[in-house]
Design goal:
There is one protein chain. Strand 2, helix 2 and strand 3 form a beta-alpha-beta unit. 39% of the residues lie in helices and 17% in strands. The protein has a single domain, classed as Spore Coat Polysaccharide Biosynthesis Protein SpsA, Chain A (Alpha-Beta Complex). A 7-stranded mixed beta sheet has the order 3-2-1-4-6-5-7, with helices on both faces. It is α/β, with parallel strands linked by helices. The protein starts with a strand and ends in an 8-residue tail after the last helix. It is globular, with a radius of gyration of 17 Å. Uridine-5'-diphosphate binds next to strand 1 and helix 3.
Length: 233
């Protein structure tokens, strides 16, 4: 039985792939039974070949290749749908969060269904840090939520939480809010953070802030219109 599935979305991350694989195995070997699902979201660099080589050498690694770039939510959701673990951890391929922290989050699964990492000592540019703070504030205001770091790339949740999702592109930024909407218990726990060492961010101001705002309005609407009824006994 596999206890944990670790999913990483990958778009043009050739410099990070080997390091990602090594860090995950190093962090989790002997601690838990796990599989690694690496979802290649239509990379144009050498990522596909590197991923196939890793999967050929290790039966616990599964690779999914999209025909073309479909976006981070699609990659994560494809991973969730094939995950065999009782628990699912997601992490970005750039290793700005450390797979070792998955072990820190595991004990919270006894009392919660979803643990969202919260980046302490965030190692990003000033602009990114400020826009993230503003983004979280606006998101919480519109969606009536209290999540401090919804964009943290490290999250751990039960498979049943993933089974309840019906995602659209961009919704990877709202996973804790959507889990709460579906009735699950969510907590935020501090995790470490470091700079992106290799490769570049796939988002700019427009596709993060503007698209993010549009998506926030949609999630606010979804939450308001969410159907919850109880049948009288
Ligand atoms: N990613 C993806 N498809 C995309 C954009 C990004 O699979 O269309 C992956 C990317 O390779 C990385 C993660 O999603 O593993 C987060 O991307 P990035 O680090 O660029 O975002 P940031 O940390 O700057 O928000
Ligand atoms: Mg990143």
């Amino acid at each position: 039985m596999i206890e944990l599935s670790i999913i990483a979305p990958i778009y043009n991350e050739e410099e990070n792939i080997e390091y990602l694989y090594q860090s995950i195995t190093h962090a989790l070997n002997d601690k838990i039974s796990y599989e690694i699902i690496l979802v290649n979201d239509g990379s144009l660099d050498n990522s596909a070949t590197l991923l196939n080589n890793i999967a050929n050498d290790n039966l616990a690694v599964h690779v999914i290749h999209f025909e073309e770039n479909c976006g981070q939510t699609a990659a994560l959701w494809a991973g969730m749908r094939t995950a065999k673990g009782e628990l699912i951890a997601i992490i970005d391929a750039d290793l700005q969060t450390d797979p070792k922290d998955i072990v820190t989050l595991l004990p919270y699964m006894d009392n919660y269904d979803f643990v969202n990492g919260k980046r302490t000592n965030r190692q990003d540019t000033f602009i990114k840090k400020v826009s993230s703070k503003v983004g979280n504030g606006v998101r919480n205001f519109i969606t009536h939520d209290t999540i401090e770091d919804t964009g943290c790339p490290m999250k751990l949740f039960k498979k049943e939480v993933a089974n309840k999702y019906y995602l659209f592109e961009g919704m990877h930024r709202f996973l804790p809010t959507l889990a709460k909407m579906n009735g699950y218990r969510v907590i935020e726990i501090p995790v470490s953070h470091r700079e992106r060492k290799f490769g570049t961010s796939k988002y700019g101001i427009f596709n993060r802030a503007f698209v993010g705002l549009m998506d926030t309005i949609v999630v606010g609407w979804l939450k308001k219109r969410h159907i919850r009824y109880k049948i009288r006994k």
